[in-house]
Design a protein that fits this description.
The protein is an alpha/beta fold. Helices cover about 55% and strands about 15% of the residues. It is built from 13 helices and nine strands. Helix 5 packs antiparallel against helix 8. The longest helix has 30 residues. The relative contact order is 0.11.
């Protein structure tokens, strides 16, 4: 397929590279052009604007930081609305409200956010969650297969995939909170958090638990794979979705407030697992 890929951050670069490896014809755009150079060397075309990138594309994939960045790329002066004749696939973690707005932009639209860290994006091990009309989702399945190891279809309304992504990130954030609270208590009890981590790994056998549990036990919060400021954004968005659905999420409110405290303490660019510092401080550590 002729594919435009917009947004070559830590996640987007790996996803775009796997599209090239799968044989798709790729045109890329990134706000800072230097991030396009490596992919250009691997066969991608480089565009000067989102509009130019998607002019002849059968699909345009956006992987951007937030609602504001997506709005600019789609509806801005050089945006893809009115130019794209294929399907827009948004893999960004955005609000359900923005997903509904993108559904009315005048072209086919699928939400397809992903779970996984940058190394998973590079290794084609992402979990893709897609939603939209059956015909459009199936048209995009070769792209999902090129970027991820498995694809789940959440429903016929694109915003439903964003609800899954936000609730999934809430689950991860809740695990960070749980590790942080447990480690604080164990440190005060004189128990090594690494021993506790080994015990939990034997109990749960989860690579997500193992990875984040180690980061928090080692207090290795930099360099960040996923920053506090992005985690805070996601907790705000999941609470907005909960409000839309009249579904209380008190734990999400707690995690949001702890991430906000981390921001207030200057941790915005640290990994979101540094929420542990806030919890430790509350415990007098």
């Amino acid at each position: 397929m002729k594919v435009a890929f917009i947004g070559l951050g830590k996640m987007g670069s790996g996803m775009a590279r796997n599209l090239l490896r799968a044989g798709h014809e790729l045109t890329v755009y990134n706000r800072t052009r230097d991030k396009t150079e490596v992919l250009a060397g691997e066969g991608a075309h480089v565009a000067d604007s989102p509009r130019e990138a998607c002019r002849d594309a059968e699909a345009a994939i956006t992987m951007l930081a937030d609602d504001g960045a997506v709005e600019e790329v789609v509806f801005g002066a050089n945006g893809i609305a009115g130019t794209l004749h294929g399907v827009h696939v948004s893999s960004s973690t955005i609000s359900t409200a923005m997903a509904r707005r993108l559904s009315s932009a005048g072209h086919d639209y699928v939400s397809a956010p992903v779970f996984g860290r940058p190394e998973a994006a590079e290794a084609k091990k992402l979990v893709v969650v897609a939603a939209g009309s059956h015909e459009v989702v199936e048209r995009c399945r070769p792209l999902f297969d090129a970027m991820g190891r498995v694809t789940f279809v959440a429903g016929s309304e694109p915003w439903q995939a964003n609800a899954v992504k936000l609730c999934g990130n809430f689950m991860i954030a809740s695990m960070l909170e749980a590790f942080s609270e447990a480690y604080a208590t164990l440190r005060k009890a004189g128990v090594d958090p690494h021993l506790f981590l080994e015990t939990m790994n034997a109990l749960f056998g989860s690579p997500v638990y193992a990875n984040y549990g180690r980061i928090i036990a080692d207090e290795q919060f930099e360099p960040a794979e996923f920053r506090v400021k992005l985690g805070y954004k996601d907790m705000r968005l999941v609470l907005a979705t909960a409000q839309e659905c009249s579904s209380p999420m008190p734990l999400a409110s707690l995690v949001r407030d702890h991430l906000l405290s981390a921001l207030a303490k200057g941790q915005g660019d640290m990994d979101w697992s540094s929420i542990a510092r806030v919890v430790a401080g509350n415990a007098g550590l």
